[in-house]
Design brief:
- With 464 residues, the protein is α/β, with parallel strands linked by helices.
- Helices cover 61% and strands 7% of the residues.
- β4, α17 and β5 form a beta-alpha-beta unit.
- α1 packs parallel to α9 and α5 packs antiparallel against α6.
Length: 464
């Protein structure tokens, strides 16, 4: 009877996870989705604690208090611009937890003389490899996003792929050894050390431009590690929830790869964002062709226009300009101008980065248009405003088959009647290549910090 109740509770928690994921697919139901998922997790935790014959709850309570305090501080202190780094860390913590839990279960089985069995040992090895790769890979992703210790540029060296493959083979070999000799717990820790090095080596050659895909992929890894740990513990809800995370992460990774017209292998191993050889230089593209504008001139251009499309990028996040953009949106709409936002699937540094920032500024969600819909109306757009975006609006993706971003679908702002790019300088984007859009006949460059530039523009519009 007790076991039946526990299994029903786990089933209920799993169903709540599924409905929570469904609600997270739309902003209007996202808050409810979070609450539903959190309630499902509460059920799973409570049932697990009562099911696992806990001898002492003191350390568990201490862990809950400390973890809750850290989570509360992070939730209130982390800026929205820091969300990509936060997500990367949370992915890593999930992988690290799987490594420790699986290792503790193996150690306990050996101490108590339990029969480990092939399911447990294989799952433990898988949890150790995937979890360690996730943890250290996520820390590298965090460092790249935060630009501490290592920059956002790819770190490339000779025979890199061969070395990665060698560490992978060693990790698998140690996993086989563990399965054959489960009593040798030290092998598990050797395995995690090698997999940790592999996690670092897999992420350092990936540039900042591809971080959204990396974050989604590491999220998938953390789910797979949790699933493996679920098999170690014979915990059905952990298996189900980990599978949901693993599947959703890999699906999202594939969606973003498709949006860039690239394969996942290309993202992981091509080193996009490193030094680019060949192709025209920035001087050749920009020399004598850049036309700068001011807030007052920009205000005159916007006066009386019918349709404006704003294309946000990572520069908007860095400048924390989303609230200033909302003020510009409200002012233009009050004057009868239709204002919409064109969102590229991989703009920013995490999936949905721009959507989150604009939602924080209370921009109506129906004003956010996906790339294909925005492009279909770009030729009827009076003014396209590019705010801190670069590679996702670079027309070289359509014209140069040798470019690192060749074939990547872009937002066609160059087809608007007038395009104004708000940017600090002519520096390249994460792909490390110049952007001919900046020198186009219908483009004006509005140089400056994104937030200040928009604030000055709003002031000039009010005075015009």
């Amino acid at each position: 009877m007790r076991e039946a109740i526990i299994n029903l509770a786990y089933l209920l928690a799993s169903v709540l996870f599924i409905f929570g994921l469904k609600d997270l697919s739309h902003p209007r139901t996202a808050v409810r989705g979070n609450l539903v998922g959190a309630f499902g997790m509460l059920i799973a935790i409570v049932v697990t604690l009562f099911d696992r014959n806990i001898l002492s709850f003191e350390m568990i309570i201490v862990g809950l208090v400390v973890g809750a305090a850290i989570g509360a501080v992070l939730a209130t202190k982390i800026q929205m611009t820091g969300m990509p780094q936060m997500v990367a860390l949370l992915n890593g913590f999930g992988g690290g937890a799987s490594v420790l839990v699986a290792g503790a279960a193996l150690l306990e089985a050996n101490i108590t003389g339990q029969d480990t069995g092939s399911q447990m040992t294989i799952s433990t090895a898988a949890s150790g490899i995937i979890g360690a790769v996730t943890f250290w890979g996520s820390l590298v992703a965090f460092a790249k996003l935060q630009e501490v210790v290592i920059g956002s540029k790819p770190v490339l060296f000779r025979a890199q792929h061969l070395i990665n493959a060698l560490f992978l083979v060693i990790s698998i070999g140690l996993g086989v050894w563990l399965v054959l000799e489960p009593s040798n717990v030290n092998v598990y820790w050797y395995l995690t050390v090698v997999a940790s090095v592999l996690g670092v080596l897999l992420v350092i050659p990936i540039g900042g431009a591809d971080m959204p895909v990396v974050i989604a992929l590491l999220n998938s890894y953390s789910g797979l590690a949790a699933t493996a740990t679920g098999f170690v513990l014979n915990n059905s809800v952990l298996i189900i929830s980990g599978s949901l995370v693993g599947a959703s992460g890999i699906i999202l990774s594939q969606i973003m790869c498709k949006a860039m017209n690239r394969s996942l292998a290309n993202v992981m191993f091509a080193g996009v964002g490193g030094a680019v050889e060949g192709g025209p230089s920035a001087d050749e593209i920009y020399a004598g062709k850049i036309k700068a504008t001011t807030a007052e001139e920009f205000a005159m251009i916007l006066d009386g226009v019918s349709r404006v499309v704003i294309v946000p990028g990572y520069g908007m996040a860095v400048a924390q300009a989303q609230h200033a953009v909302r003020d510009l949106y409200n002012l233009l709409e009050s004057r009868g101008t239709t204002v919409e936002f064109a969102i590229h699937p991989v703009a920013g540094r995490m999936p949905g980065h721009m959507n989150v920032l604009l939602a924080e500024a209370n921009i109506p969600y129906d004003k956010l248009k996906e790339m294909d819909e925005a492009n279909s109306m770009m030729e009827q757009t009076d003014v396209a405003i590019v705010l801190g975006a670069n590679d996702v609006v670079n027309p070289i993706a359509r014209t140069d088959p040798k470019s690192p971003i060749a074939g990547m679908p872009i937002i066609d702002v160059d087809k608007a009647r007038t395009c104004v790019v708000i940017k600090r300088s002519l520096s390249p984007g994460f792909a490390g290549i110049p952007n001919p859009l900046f020198a186009a006949d219908n483009t004006l460059m509005y140089f400056g910090d994104g937030k200040k530039a928009i604030v000055d523009l709003v002031a000039a519009l009010k005075e015009s």
